[in-house]
Every structure is written in C-alpha cells, then in structure tokens.
Write a structure and sequence with these properties.
Distance between the termini: 52 Å
Shape: globular
Protein name: DUF4209 domain-containing protein
Order of helices and strands: HHHHHHHHHHHHHEEHHHHHHHHHH
Number of strands: 2
Strand order of the largest sheet: 1-2
Oligomer: single chain
Structural class: mainly alpha
Helix content: 55-70%
Length: 484
C-alpha cells in the first residue's frame, strides 16, 4: 500500500494512505502464525469460495498452507481434495508427506482410475507423481498407483487401437508419457505397448509423408489462406504458416522456414551502387528486397487469419497445443506458457479493435501487443538457447540476451537453426551485418526504448511480429516432432 503514496495527487490523500498503511502493517504484525492456521482450518470454504472476489487469494492461501502444512487439519485437506485436487497435485512434492499421512485422500483423487479422469488432472503431472511414489519402496501411496495403473493400461491400449493419421500425434504423446511411467515403476505392463508403439510410429510417418507439400512464395495471400482453411491436419496447418516441407528421396521430412531466402546469386546493378547505403556484401539490396517481399506475404496471411473470428480461434487453439509439446520437452511446465498465450490472446484482440479508436489510442493498443510479442520471442529464444547450449556448458539464463541467441557465430544455435535462418531473424528482431551488426529493423530494442517511429506502430507491425513469433515456435515444433 505504501507504494501507492507517490502516485497520489494531493498531500492530503498521501497522508491518509500513509497512515492507513502504517496502521495496517502494525495490525498484521500482531497476528501470529497460529491464528492464521486456525483461521484457515475453520474457514477454508469461505476463503476459496468467497462471494467477494479477492484476486490471488487462493494462491496466497495455498502458499501459506504449504509452508505450515503440518498445522492444517485433516478436514481442511479433505475439502481441498474434493474441490481443488489438481492444485495439490501440482504441488505434490510439498504435500507428499500429507498424502502419506492420509493415504485415503490420495486414493479419493483417483476415484475411477480411468484415463479421462487422469487427463482432467493433467496426465503428465499424474504420471510423474506415480513415478515419484514408486521411488519410495514403502510408500503407502503405492496401493493407489497399483489400483489405477491396470485401468490406465486398458484405457490407453484402447486409445492406441483407435489411432489414425489424424489423431496419431496426440496418441503418441500420451502413450510415450505412460510408457515412461511404466518403465519408472518397473511395471511388466510396459511390454504390452511394444507393438502398439510400432504401429503408432508407422502411422506418424505415413501422416507426414502423405500430407507433406511445398508452398511457393509467389502464391497470393488469399490463396494461401484458402489452402490453409482446407488443410485438415492441425499440425500441418500450423506449420504451414511459416514453414514449407518436402519428403526427400530417403523418406525423411525436410522442413524449411520461408525466412531462409537465398542470399546468393549475381549482384544486380542496384546492388553495386548502394554501397554507401545500409547494405553490405551479405545484406545486399536484392536480399533485403527479398526479405521485404517474404515479410509482406507472411504478414498479410497472418493478418487475414487474425481478422477472421473462426480462423483466429483455431490459430490460438493450435498455438496452445504446440506450447504443450514444447513445455514438455523443455521441462518448463505448461502453466508458464499457457498464461503467456492467454495474455497474448488479449493483446491481439485489443489490437484488432484498434481501428475503432483515435490514432493515438491505436498506437497504444498496437504497441502493447507488439512489445509483448517481442517479449515472448525473447523468452522462447532463451528457453531454446538453454535447451540447445545448456547440454554442453553452464548457462546463467538471466544473463542471456536476445542478441546472443540470434548470433550467427554461436556454433550451437547456428547448427540448430541454420545460418540463414538465424541471421534473418536477427535482421528483423535485432540487427546483423557482415562486419558490424548494424543492419536491420531492430524491432525489439526500438520498441523497448521507444526509438521506433510511432506511425509505424500499427496492426501491420503486430501481424509481422506475430509471424516472426510463429516462425520461432514452428522452428522448435518441427525439430521436436522428429527428435528421438
């Protein structure tokens, strides 16, 4: 509350808030932990189900329960298991001793043990918990795991039998997670999945081979959108927003970002006379023109999709699904990326309504969306950098910069992204150059430091940055799809 004082308009209001803050602080300091624990035990229902919305009260209360878990009553835990079981499972490492004290509560979470129930609790979390339980030879929670696993085996084998080329991606992810769990707990049931896994891998290969296609840059935006709408498989629809793919002679799938335009070829006359402008031997005027054309087509496609309510809804749904895979492989928790995409959705919706307002408000709305997308790209590139480079050496993620992740001289990132791809991302998001990194739009820093021309902050910029974000996401997605 004291932080509000400098923001108030008059000295009178400042004094009122300051006095109130001091008095409130004094009262809070007099409350001991025993009183708080007693209050939680007595009023657990009122705290979580209050008619008056208090933002963040559930998380704050759960943090307190976690800290003083041994003082919380059995009845309070019963209530939480009945109403908020998923919250306790999300913090299972902290509450494991409580479940061991009251093992029947753990059993109550898995009433039926069927896959649909487990999926509603986030299957990845549940399978990890089962693996953790089995690390303790005498854990009283093993009884529940032993009851549930055979039921899941039957359900997931049934899921395997219904796998098709359209749903195989989702089935494969679930089966591999469950098989890992079975291996962790050394269950003989794991052997029942040997043949189903072979069939799933075959279906996955067939799906990509049969539906792979190559989209050329000359296709107009409206035709691209029409093709996009006709594509049935959601993975291909999402990937096609930024990448092309071809089935090679050896049967392998090659993905390529459309940002990877060719910089080679004979110099044009215009290239020869632009040596004093913002060009160099790599970033010739011809190459920069090519990048501008690609950007215009891709941005137009993204904007067309964003401005159609149905297509936009599909786009955000696919993006959330891809986030789940990436968070799974990066071991960073879907809840982190899930919140990011929800906030991104709000920014995009506001920016798409910007034309209903005056010019300055339009800039403000589009700036918020543009800056947030840049922040997301920054976050994803850092996560990728940790995933790729962190295997070989220690990385302090707080010290990693966007420029570092987009440095074509970094051997690890160059090998993962490809030199042209990493350079052309840098051309738009930061800067690049043959001798000095001085060429490019530098969107991230120009937005962050407000050195960008305000008139260029528009829905077109939002669409362009959204395309670059999708390109980064798809680059990771296509790598992870076929990563062994």
């Amino acid at each position: 509350m004291a932080l509000l004082v400098p923001m108030l308009a008059t000295d009178e209001f400042k004094k009122i808030i300051k006095d109130l803050s001091i008095e409130a602080s004094t009262v809070v300091q007099k409350i001991n932990n025993g009183e708080v624990i007693k209050f939680i035990n007595t009023n657990i229902n009122e705290i979580f189900e209050s008619e008056v919305e208090v933002i963040g009260i559930e998380e704050v209360t759960l943090n307190y329960i976690e800290k003083y878990k041994n003082g919380i009553s059995e009845e309070a835990y019963k209530w939480l298991v009945f109403h908020y079981d998923y919250l306790l499972l999300d913090r299972f490492e902290s509450f494991e001793t409580i479940f061991e004290k009251y093992p029947y509560l753990f059993g109550q979470i898995f009433k039926t043990g069927h896959y649909e129930e487990v999926r509603s609790l986030r299957e990845e979390t549940v399978f990890d918990i089962f693996s953790r339980v089995y690390r303790k030879e005498k854990s009283p929670l093993r009884k529940t795991v032993d009851r549930v696993v055979p039921i899941l085996v039957e359900d997931i084998l049934q899921l395997c039998s219904k796998a098709t080329k359209d749903n195989v991606f989702f089935v494969e992810r679930t089966v591999k997670r469950f098989v890992k769990c079975l291996n962790d707990i050394k269950s003989p049931y794991v052997n029942q999945f040997n043949e189903p896994l072979k069939i799933i891998e075959s279906l996955l290969d067939e799906s990509v081979k049969e539906n792979g296609h190559h989209t050329k840059l000359k296709i107009p935006t409206d035709e691209i959108v029409d093709l996009w709408k006709k594509q049935k498989e959601w993975e291909k629809r999402f990937i096609s927003l930024s990448h092309d793919w071809l089935v090679q002679d050896d049967g392998k799938i090659m993905f390529k970002s459309r940002l990877e335009v060719d910089a080679n070829g004979k110099k044009r006359f215009f290239d020869e006379i632009c040596s004093n402008s913002n060009c160099d031997d790599y970033y010739t005027r011809s190459l920069q023109d090519k990048l501008s054309i690609v950007s215009a087509i891709e941005t137009g496609t993204i904007l067309s999709i964003m401005q159609d309510a149905n297509m936009y809804s599909e786009l955000m749904g696919m993006l959330m699904s891809v986030m789940e895979l990436i968070s799974d492989r990066f071991n960073c928790g879907i809840e982190n990326f899930e919140k990011d995409i929800k906030i991104l959705d709000k920014h995009l919706q506001m920016s798409m309504q910007a034309n209903d307002y005056d010019a300055d408000t339009q800039i403000a709305l589009c700036y918020g969306a543009s800056m947030f997308i840049c922040a997301l790209i920054d976050k994803f590139m850092k996560s990728l950098y940790l995933y790729v480079v962190g295997v070989e050496k220690y990385i302090s993620i707080d010290k990693v910069t966007l420029g570092q992740t987009l440095n074509p001289n970094d051997t690890f990132m160059r090998a993962y992204l490809g030199e042209k791809h990493i350079r052309h991302l840098a051309y738009f998001l930061s800067k690049d150059g043959e001798r000095e990194r001085i060429i490019g739009y530098n969107y991230r820093n120009s937005l962050a430091h407000w050195t960008i021309n305000p008139d260029s902050v528009s829905i077109s910029l939002v669409g362009q940055l959204m395309w670059l974000f999708i390109d980064v996401v798809n680059t990771i997605f296509t790598k992870l799809l076929f990563e062994k």
